[in-house]
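User: quick one - fold this with LW54GNZ2 bound?
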Amino acid sequence: MTNVTVVEGDFRATDAKFSIVVARFNSFVVESLLTGAIDALVRHGVAESNIEVIRVPGAFELPLAVKQVANKRKPDAIIALGAVIRGGTPHFDYVAGECTKGVASVMLETDIPCSFGVLTTDSIEQAIERSGTKAGNKGAEAAIGALEMVSLIRNL
Ligand SMILES: Nc1c(NC[C@H](O)[C@H](O)[C@H](O)CO)[nH]c(=O)[nH]c1=O
Ligand SMILES: CC(=O)[C@@H](O)COP(=O)(O)O
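Assistant: Sure. Structure tokens for the protein plus LW54GNZ2:
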């Protein structure tokens, strides 16, 4: 691979500004995602003063808020956090589907990396496991992904 150009990000874009958009629904899980996301950024050297938190009612509202944040506040990256937990009706599919598509389309429209720390689980247990217990913390993973994407975009 000696003649191949490889462009990638690292985790050193510590001057970057991050907006974390957080859904309040299932807050017992989502607050742990938020703690994990902030902790991951701060541990990598991001100042708390470069992190802001915006709250919305639920995951369905995340795309509009992410879009408004992208256009009005122009952070280097946005981290969307929420937890959609399957119930007994098809509601899960609509909320999770629109949330996923919406956040992804804002990222492509605005060129601002939007990382997806929204749990979409079949049970409360699965959500708890992914918000800081045995299966890690998806909020922290989303934050690290955002940090890398800021760096990658600067390097491209
Ligand atoms: N059931 C879940 C929701 N539902 C609420 C919607 O996101 C939305 O706030 C409401 O329909 C008003 O527009 N939200 C979650 O984040 N997680 C869920 O499991
Ligand atoms: C993800 C959902 O919308 C879900 O929590 C709703 O539950 P249900 O399908 O039992 O109304």
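One thing worth noting: The radius of gyration is 16 Å.
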